[in-house]
Amino acid sequence: MDVTTLLIGKARNVIDYFADPVFNWGRRNSIWMLHLGIKCCALEWGPFIARFDAERFGIGPRASPRHCDLMIVAGPITHKFAPKFKMLYEQMPEPKWVIAMGDCAISGGPFFDSYNIIRGVDKLVPVDVYVPGCPPRPETMLDGMFKLQELIKKRKGGYYTCGP
Amino acid sequence: MNLYGVVLWLLTAIINSIAIPIIAWLGNLLWFIRPVTDFAIALLKNDAFLNFVVVFAEAFIILIYIALFIIILLWFERKMWGRFQDRRGPMHVGYAGLLQIFADMMKIFGKEDIIPKKADKLLFTLCPIIVTATAFLALVALPMSDGFVIARLDGGLLFVFAAFSLAPLGVFIGGWGANNKYTLQGALRGAAQMISYEVPLLFSVLGVVMLAGSFNIMDIVHRQTIWYALLQPIGLFVFFTAATAEIERPPFDIPEAESELVAGWQTEYAGMKYGICWVAEWIRMYVGAALVVLLFFGGWNGPWLPQEIWFQIKLWIILIFMIWVRQSFPRPRIDQLLNLGWKRLLPLSIVNIVLTIGIVASGWLG
Amino acid sequence: MSAEEVAGEMKKKFPEADVRIPRASRLTASVKKEVLLDVCSFLKDAGFDHLSSIAGVDRAENFEVAYFLWSYEKKILVTLKTAVQKENPRIQSVIKIWEGANWHEREAYDMFGIVFEGHPDLRRLLMPEDFVGHPLRKDFKLPEVE
Amino acid sequence: MAEMWINMGPQHPATHGLWDLRIKVDGDMILDADPQIGYIHRGIEKLGENRNYTQFIPLADRTGYASPMTWAILYVLTVEELMDIKVPPRATYIRTIAFELQRMASHLLFVYGMAENVGAMWPPLVYAYRERELLLDLFQILTGARFHFNYPRIGGVKWDIPQTFEAQTKKALDVIESKLKEYERMFDESEIFLMRTKGVAVLRKEDAIRMGVTGPTLRACGVKEDLRKSEPYMCYSDFDFGIPTGKNGDLYDRWVVRIAEIRESAKIVRQALDRIPGGAVATKVPAAVVKSVTVLDGETGYEDLCVIMAKVPKVIKPPPGEAYVRVEDSRGESAMYIISDGTERPYRIKIRSPIFCTLSALKYMMRGARVADVPPIMEGIDILLSEVDR
Predict the structure, then answer these.
(1) Residues whose CB is less than 8 angstroms from the CB of residue B262 and which lie 6 or more positions away in sequence, other chains included
(2) Which range of residues forms the domain containing residue C34?
(3) Rounded to whole angstroms, how far apart are CA atoms D107 and D261?
(4) Which residue, of A8, A119, A142, B81, has the fewest CB within 10 Å?
């Protein structure tokens, strides 16, 4: 390893040391989720936003995948939807997270042996938090969000992964 | 009485009693920089240069003020939305969610900046710049008090409108450049909306201009012994409606209508570009609300309190009203919106002009 | 007009049809697929405006297509059944009689591979275009789950 | 501007569930619409053939997620007709109450969707959810779940209504009825809402009947047709309630009809609560073969469990035959067609979804509409893709 790369690496470490807490604080307190209502679980977003007021924690829905940080997969992914689902995931800018909400997204749930269901969304995109339930109650969903916040808090060197 | 005097006094005090002695002391200490310090002291005692410093300081203060204003406005608007919707709004980031907007900002700073492969890169990048720059440009001629104005233009009102109405151009090229059907639809709607609401917007102001006899915003404010809102109720209504449409705020946010066009012309913007567009919307909201206050509600005129405080009080009342309107109405369709613009607001503003001509010509107002 | 009267008229007009009344205001009829369109237009003229549903069934020896018809005036539900052979299943489309049959027939085509002749737009409805097989046939087995 | 196709979906803020509405537009005018469905096709009908009769109840819940109770009740009604089971009157009443509460919850969801899709009317959107929560709380008392209740059983219901249920229901109904007035003030007095809905997406009576449109959408066209009246199932013939109809068949009429239906449902629930008879909530399912019930020796409480969990044996084998049962769902006529071959699994389950048929009538509603009208039109028929795709 030559000296320049070593120095750059060191400099990055130093910057990360100071930048990480700031950026991660911002990221975990401002989670915008993609408005992708697949099935039943999407109906629990309403109480999640209205009654349990997710905006208290800076969580809110956005329509365009380009504006979002979080994709909540609220239902089973079918073979017909899978390519478009992947495209949606790719359209989201880094850093991005995925929550598999409900049994259908985690493993196929009650439709596990169907001919048209992909058993588990983690076969298509990387999943950060699994929120079980059929459907999960909004409280469970909030808990899942807190788990995600903890995950973001531990994120290292996040500043460089998002650059061009 | 205004805070501008205080600021000016502070500035002169800093220059005269801190900056000049320090520079002189430095010159005494280090003989070899003596020519430079002499020149600096001469500059600081020169009125023309001092004027430049003052304008620069003013611009800087207004920039800081606008940044703070947007942060507080965003927080306030979110809190108000929460209250309207029977919930609480941001709560847990900072005290009562005050730091929520900082969190959003930090997140957006750190986001990946995506430019779609088939987009026109130049136009795509130009759009947020134009939208934001024109919004800032309008601030140049927008006074806050007798003193706090960067440029005292005779045609200040026209300048503000000119800057104000450039933004849809940015929207249009951005929407076209993103190479997406939703953005294109949004951009076309934006263009249509701009063309049809520019006219009533300017016409509704003509009544005010005639009453005041000037295009200079300072003069208009000074001549408002009675609020023009009382003399020009039609003008106020038309202006408020058209301004809401111009700044693309709900219920007239048709170019970015969320439920039908995803996010309209902003659909493809990610990261900082989206953040800039977002900020521009709120600056434009400030400009719109400030114009309403300046033209119709006597600007900073008011007893006892400093001018800037009066201006802020009136401004926030207008802003609260705008937020209220946003929460109360559904979104009209584009054709209905254009109909409203051409067939209702334009005739109304013309009627307003005719009435005002009558009033002015009859000399009732002296 | 009660279910019995409709049954009587059907019997008169289509002697080959097997018409039964399992319970009040229900009528079940099995017809040959050649006369299906005639029976359908007869029923439509008799006031059966509402095509509730079209169901394909994979019987052991042949496919069965069941039409459920409801009359708003008479309050009678008619189940009209017709058999289609398994090899190259083809049947006349009823879309000219009840336009609402459009998607039902597309679904039956998708799920059973029954071709409806005269359907203007017979594409797969629910499954992706490149899907092989017809899921609701009995010989289509569900994937093995590990 | 040249004509172009726009894909509204599969991910689009205006869709409930996933689908792809391809519209051909000329500027802002819609020339043609081509809905693509099947993005959440789970193959429930095929899965039903691989489950036994009791196991299908949860799947029936998941057929239409905005009104799971009605689907589950529809399923057990069909199996009961197949097996010719008489359900105790108390169970029927409980089912009716649950059915109507479900209709109210579903229509409140419609209010939410209307507010969202007519254009970002956030407060009513959140209010509708707030009121829906009252009903979900009731369901929670009744069944233990917010939705996907798994509550009806073949031959009855899972358990009796709890003691506090009646008082709480009446309280909730009072609140909802008072809030309905608020909605009417918020929507019907809003000039822009009237502009957006009156005369939009007009569906003529003949077109509606020809395309098999049912439910509130049909009633908004002026057809006084409701299965609860014209072919009373459960115990609807005992109650006094009206069928609200519209005149023009436009979006506004659909809105009015649905709001009126919430009131009628409340009326039915009140009557049912007042008249509910005593007795058992589940009957013994006859002629069933209990094949393999695992009873652990000495396990206490099993008997109690058997009493609580309605007296349904683990395996049910209806006699060979078929049944086609229709109910008036909150979206229209939903029906199930079950063929039994005498084994423990259904031979074929066909689900008739009301929205499936209403959706195919879309091209008549889209005629002459604009792009901005698409979300309200979608919401006007109270679209639910989970039901359509099954």
Answers:
(1) A63, A64, B182, D12, D13
(2) 3-89
(3) 8
(4) A8
The verdict on a CB contact (< 8 Å) between A113 and C145 is: yes
Give the closest-approach CA distance of A153 to chain B in angstroms.
Answer: 13
User: Side chain identity at D90, as an amino acid letter?
Assistant: R
Interface of C with D in 14-43 (CB under 8 A): 25
Nearest CA in chain B to D116: B259
Instruction: For residue A109, tell me if it sits in a domain.
Output: yes
- Give D375's contacts in chain B (Cβ within 8 Å): 259-260
Kindly report the CATH number that applies to the domain delimited by D48-389: 1.10.645.10
B3-40 pLDDT, tens digit per residue, is 777 878 888 888 888 888 888 888 778 778 778 887 87
- pLDDT for res D297: 44
Predicted TM-score (pTM) of this structure: 0.85
Residue A110 Cα, gap to closest chain B Cα (Å)? 31
Is residue A17 included in any domain, yes or no? Answer: no
CA–CA separation, B122 vs A163, rounded Å?
20
Residue A107, helix vs strand vs coil: helix
Rounded to the nearest angstrom, the minimum Cα separation between C58 and chain A is 18
Q: What would the two tokens of residue D93 be?
A: 């009443």
What mean pLDDT value characterizes chain D? Answer: 82
Q: Is residue C42 part of a domain?
A: yes
Amino acid at A9: G
Q: Is residue B231 predicted with pLDDT exceeding 50?
A: yes
Query: Is C78 within a domain?
Result: yes
Extents of the domains making up chain D: 48-389
Secondary element (H or E) of residue D5: strand D3-8
Q: What is the mean pLDDT of residues B63-70?
A: 87
Task: Tell me the one-letter amino acid at D297.
Answer: D
Question: Domains in chain C: how many in total?
Answer: 1
Rounded to whole angstroms, the Cα distance separating D389 from D379 reads 17
Is pLDDT at A55 greater than 60 in this prediction?
yes
Find chain B residues with C-beta within 8 A of D1's C-beta.
Answer: 188
Which residues in chain B are contacts of A91 at CB distance < 8 A? 114
Burial annotation D256-285 (CB, 10 A radius, 16+ → b, else e): bbbbbbbbbbbbbbbbbbeebeeebbbbeb
Helices (H), chain A: 3-29, 40-43, 45-49, 82-91, 102-107, 138-153, 158-161
> Residues C6, C46: contact at Cβ < 8 Å?
yes
Q: Which residue in the set D4, D126, D370 is minimally distant from B85, CB to CB?
A: D126
From chain B, pick out residues whose CB is under 8 angstroms from the CB of D190. Answer: 328-330
What is the complex's ipTM, to 2 decimals? 0.82
A22 falls within a domain: no
Distance CA A80, CA C127 (A): 7
Chains that touch D (3 or more CB pairs under 8 A): A, B, C
Task: Report whether pLDDT(D1) > 60.
Answer: no
Tens place of pLDDT for every residue, chain C, 146 residues? Answer: 677 777 777 778 777 777 787 777 888 888 888 888 888 888 888 888 888 888 888 888 888 888 888 888 888 888 888 888 888 888 888 888 888 888 888 888 888 888 888 888 888 888 888 888 888 888 877 777 76
Range of the domain at A148: 31-155
The SS3 assignment for B107 reads helix
Determine how many CB atoms are found less than 10 A away from the CB of residue D344: 18
For residue C32, being part of any structural domain is answered with yes
Is B107 close to A164, i.e. CB distance below 8 A?
A: no
Chain B closest CA to A123's CA: distance in Å? 24
* pLDDT bucket at D290, cuts 50 / 70 / 90: very low
Q: Which residues pair with A97 in a beta bridge?
A: A70
Do the domain assignments include residue C121? no
Q: Which residues pair with D152 in a beta bridge?
A: D157
* Selected residues 68-107 of chain B with any CB under 8 Å from a CB in chain A: 78, 82, 85, 87-93, 97, 99-100, 102-107
Mean pLDDT for B222-239 is 84
Kindly report the nearest CA distance between residue A75 and chain D, in angstroms: 9
